[in-house]
Amino acid sequence: MTTPVGQSARYEIQSCPDIEFGRPDGHVLRLELSLPIGVAATAVVLYLHGGGWMIGSRKSHAARAERLARHGFAVASIDYRPSTVAPFPAQILDIVTAIEWLKGPGQAFGVDANRVALWGASAGAHLALLATAAPAIRQAPHDVPGPPVQAAVGYFGCYDLTSRGDLDRPDTCSPIPREILEQDWPSGVPAPPSSRYLRARLLGGDESAVSDRELAAISPFARAHDIHVPVFLLHGTGDSVTSVQQSLRMAQELRRRGETVRLRLLEGANHEDSAFDTDATIADVAAFLRCSVEHHTVPVMAAPVNFLHHTSWQVDDIDEVGRGAHTMLENNPERHFWGLGRHYAGANFFWYLTDPAGNFSEYYSDMDTVPEDGLWSPEVLHGLQGLYA
User: Fold this and answer.
1) I need a surface site. Which of 95, 154, 261, 299 has the fewest CB within 10 A?
2) What is the sign of the dihedral through the CA atoms of 14, 18, 20 and 25?
3) What's this model's pTM, rounded to 2 decimal places?
4) Do residues 211 and 199 lie in contact, with contact meaning Cβ atoms separated by under 8 Å?
């Protein structure tokens, strides 16, 4: 089927449902693939659903994946084995299986399996970050390589599963979301189960017998020294299930280690709040992923004089010009130089910022082009007219 283009995105999408990508121990794993129409060799985002590692499916929040696909990414919402079927590290192995599928049968869909990001919500956010921290997953009789990904996005995740993490209290003024209260939990599981219970089941053990050492081994916070990809964490300040402190501490730890991390707090938003699915929030995720999996990093070194005047980075539209600049200015407002503006000659929007070497970097969009059969006469633009309208 074809879905109309969203207000802040440009691509129509094609949905390819119920694709089998693996069958570990006879358990069938499927994915839902949303493809942007007209994009060749598109980067891929694997979406990992929430549900306490025990419930949920690839069809959870399907509209979320479709909205991101409209920004030009192939989004594969995947199944992974629940803890009631197989304990950790089965879930990480299923992510690896999905990426292997992309490199094989998935090539028939025109995706680029060398540009992959992970995007997870709640328990899926935990798995997304943990997967990036796994250079090798211990699995007898041999080691299985961790998934090769270029970025990770986490929605309201729990990243410290130890007793220290239990000190991060959720917001008591917000109600438990109906989506959680009305879930059909497996027989014998207390409804809703405690977070400690869910973590123990993920490890295949009993709640009273699981140690902090075991929980630290599967906590992204404790494995932050192994995370070396750009990370974007989003969390609501009114989360009644997972404390916003989980994302705050995770971001702080990654920054302390010199890693690239962005944190966005959604004021008053609860767990699985609709605020995470707005056009603006999805566009923010798309902007982050585009810089992480679409662009190359260019190192620039300071010199006695400025040999380079500026570099220009094209983005989709004026909104992304603003988002990109504001992201750069969040922690370094002194980097602002000139913008928002519009050049006269090319009619493109721009925003200039200073780079660490003292030169300029420009975000721009909507540059005019002249088609081969277009009528155009060259002219000389004098003075400031050559710079801006």
Assistant:
1) 299
2) positive
3) 0.76
4) no
